Amino acid sequence: MANSIPADLDTLLQHTGIGEFDPVHGAAPVALPAMRTSTVRFQDLDALHRAQQAKAKGDRSVTYGRVGMDTHAALEDVFCTLEGAERAFLASSGLAAITLAFFSMLNSQDHVLVADCSYGPVRYLDKVVLRRMGIEATYCRATPDALKAQLRPNTRVLYVESPGSLLFEMLDIPALAAFAQEHDLILAVDNTWGSGYIYRPLELGADISIVAGTKYVGGHSDLMLGAVMAKDPALIQRINDTHYAMGYSISADDAWLAIRGVRTLPIRMRQTARNALEICDFFNSRHEVVRIYHPALPADPGHAIWQRDCTGSNGMLAVELRLDDAAARRFVDALTLFGIGFSWGGFESLVQLVDHGALQVHGYWTPSDNAIVRLHIGLESTRDLIADLSQALERAAARA
Question: What is the pTM of this model?
Answer without folding.
Answer: 0.94
